[in-house]
């Protein structure tokens, strides 16, 4: 099946935002065995949008739209598609209730233009918007399938995964041999080294296929195979996964697309272990990533962002002479990372205590180079480990990579205490 | 002048990379007063690429290509364009020398396929590649202008700025007036209400144009005008900005594309004010967003993530009977938000203390609904304010919106102490 993605929005044509929706959908469609032949971006202009639809009709079986379904006057996607299909539009009552509910919950009066967000094309399947207001839709018309999704990624992604994907599997992909994939997640290893280690495996076979790609600070390998049944596919995928695990046992941390923090949160929660953190240069990013996982409240007690030296002394008992004066180690040091990890663990009374202190940049501090970071792990009745990192990239990269690094080290430490991995 | 950007590369259609080239070029072209009407992505396929070229010819005056000019067999851009223009290709001697030089410098033998990177279309202007090997080109043919650029951003960007842009100004833009824009950023107001307030202004005029759009939790308005000179443009844009400010004085927080946290960090740093935070349900997201801004270390001292009730009692002196027992307020309450803000301010010895406590979900807690959040602002020698929020969306949305809300309230509080805004 051939697909085209049409992103609607003048902000894309002005370069105010990058078209990350097209990337997300392309990956998802590839995983469904659908070939994306074109991605198109068109502005909030009715005539040009309809031109784009006519072109797409002729060269794609499936056309996905993102954007242009909000409340404002330049949100034109549904109108343009309805016109090009010769169909009408009507208010979807469930969607309208959802919009009304939103405003009454907030105690804010609903302005009239918000009714627009509940519009759907006649005889289409409404796709509920669980993270926003504008309802999406899916429709089969003549030889084409159409899916209309919101522009904001936080609304588009869940609507595709939870609403549009099942609709496609049921209506559009009935006679395709389904493609089954597994996402293998790796930590503590770079893309090129990983590819190097797997190169023989990658070249040695083409079913299942092996596709590595790198995201910010972590590497993912997608293994895929087409098979008539789930069980046949899984047999092939599981076998390959085991081969890869034997090559990289210390790096393969999950065989579903979950972040390391989720593996850690679930593991510690299920085994009754608790965690606390002391962050300097990452300023809360570590704790934010842990608490982004539902269920973290049962294993994460809290922590301290000790951005200033005063906070390091006052709340985490870092000796003043560690931080200041002639020959002091300085805030960015192995010694301070050690104290931070141990003291936050004691203060919070947790099984593990993590610490991060470093120079995120842009400027250097204490005459130490940007990218120098120390991360510490303290453990109840266990030894405290401190690791030195020399990271490259900008402030954001360095902060993210510091967090990835300490999470990886915690995962390794937890694994040492367990014969079998949590996977 | 109407432009279309055609990005060539199957890796884009597979979602392996995001089309950041289109964003970069769109911004550059807008600044030149060129309207980008379409962005197209097509794979490394000769037939589909030529289809895309024919479509673009009919709807754009200027067509820019990125990608598909490397040494490999799937690099087809120059061949496809040459075919569609009915022209030949030849080796550009300067480009060939550049390629030879590269290999001889490295002492590596040049493989034959690298000669391809020196190819240009007959009677075109070669665009030297200062950061890579593949030569680009610019060409005027019948009613269209064509510019061919490399795919890797580190090659494409300098080639556009140093080679293609001057070519365009000299050959294609002799009679264009440049476009000037301003980004107005709003907080504490939704997209629909904002448009409702500005609707008369939006309808009442088309120069400067007014384009509102919503990002996660905030609204942006771009005002744009074409003018012969910077000063004339700014006069028109500033006048309109003032009109909008009079309508929404409590929501317009910046007239450049900066996040609220940057405005607050810069403001507090420049006035010597300091800040600390106590976070429960947001788990560090507030402090992470503040410390993501370079320079925050001079105004942000740190804070506490008091995820558990024990941490709220131990580190922030929340009375036990506030949290537990018959008729207790509970952790998610106005009273606890107040204590958290005041205690973290005192502990850190800062001018302001912020607090967030709420139910981010997915599950409710203390029999309180998901989305109920209390945010507090404590101020040295000032009164403590607590606001109740009823937010919708998933865990991530609720956490982000809670942070946006407290930042907005802090900005308002800072503004109250200042006759003029920081803008």
TrEMBL record, chains A, B:
Segments forming domain MoaB/Mog: 4-171
Domain of life per record: Bacteria
InterPro entries: CinA, CinA-like_C, CinA_C, CinA_KH, Competence-induced_CinA, MoaB/Mog-like_dom_sf, MoaB/Mog_dom
Cross-referenced Pfam families: CinA, CinA_KH, MoCF_biosynth
SUPFAM superfamilies, per the entry: CinA-like (SSF142433), Molybdenum cofactor biosynthesis proteins (SSF53218)
UniProt similarity note: Belongs to the CinA family.
HAMAP family linked: CinA_B (MF_00226_B)
Name under which the protein is recorded: Putative competence-damage inducible protein
Organism listed in the record: Paenibacillus sophorae
């Amino acid at each position: 099946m051939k697909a085209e993605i049409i992103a609607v929005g003048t902000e894309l044509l002005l370069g105010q935002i990058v078209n990350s929706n097209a990337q997300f959908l392309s990956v998802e469609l590839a995983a469904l065995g659908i070939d994306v032949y074109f991605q198109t971006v068109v502005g909030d202009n009715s005539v040009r949008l309809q031109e784009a639809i006519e072109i797409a009709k002729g060269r794609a079986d499936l056309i996905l739209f993102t954007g242009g379904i909000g409340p404002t006057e330049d949100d034109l996607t549904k109108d343009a598609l309805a016109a090009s299909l010769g169909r009408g539009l009507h208010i979807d009552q469930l969607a309208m209730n959802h919009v009304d509910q939103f405003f009454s919950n907030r105690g804010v009066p609903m302005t009239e233009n918000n009714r627009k967000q509940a519009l759907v094309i006649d005889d289409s399947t409404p796709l509920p918007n669980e993270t926003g207001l504008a309802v999406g839709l899916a429709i089969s018309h003549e030889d084409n399938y159409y899916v209309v999704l919101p522009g904001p990624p936080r609304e588009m992604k869940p609507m595709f995964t939870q609403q549009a994907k099942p609709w496609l599997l049921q209506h559009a992909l009935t006679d395709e041999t389904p493609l089954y994939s597994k996402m293998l997640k790796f930590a503590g290893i770079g893309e090129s080294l990983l590819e190097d280690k797997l190169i023989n495996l990658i070249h040695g076979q083409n079913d299942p296929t092996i596709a590595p790609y790198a995201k910010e600070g972590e590497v993912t390998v997608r293994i895929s195979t087409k098979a008539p049944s789930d069980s046949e596919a899984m047999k092939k995928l599981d076998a390959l996964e085991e081969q890869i695990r034997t090559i990289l046992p210390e790096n393969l941390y999950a065989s579903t697309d979950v972040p390391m923090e989720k593996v850690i949160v679930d593991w510690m929660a299920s085994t009754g272990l608790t965690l606390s953190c002391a962050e300097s240069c990452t300023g809360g990013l570590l704790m934010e990533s842990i608490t982004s996982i539902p269920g973290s409240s049962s294993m994460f007690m809290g922590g301290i962002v000790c951005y200033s030296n005063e906070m390091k002394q006052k709340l985490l008992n870092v000796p003043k002479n560690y931080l200041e004066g002639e020959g002091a180690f300085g805030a960015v040091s192995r010694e301070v990372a050690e104290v931070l990890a141990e003291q936050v663990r004691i203060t919070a009374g947790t099984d593990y205590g993590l610490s991060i202190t470093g120079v995120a940049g842009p400027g250097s501090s204490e005459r130490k180079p940007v990218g120098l970071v120390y991360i510490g792990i303290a453990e109840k009745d266990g030894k405290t480990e401190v690791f030195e990192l020399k990271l490259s990239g900008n402030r954001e990269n360095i902060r993210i990579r510091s967090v990835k690094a300490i999470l990886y080290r915690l995962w390794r430490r937890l694994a040492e205490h367990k014969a079998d991995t949590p996977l």
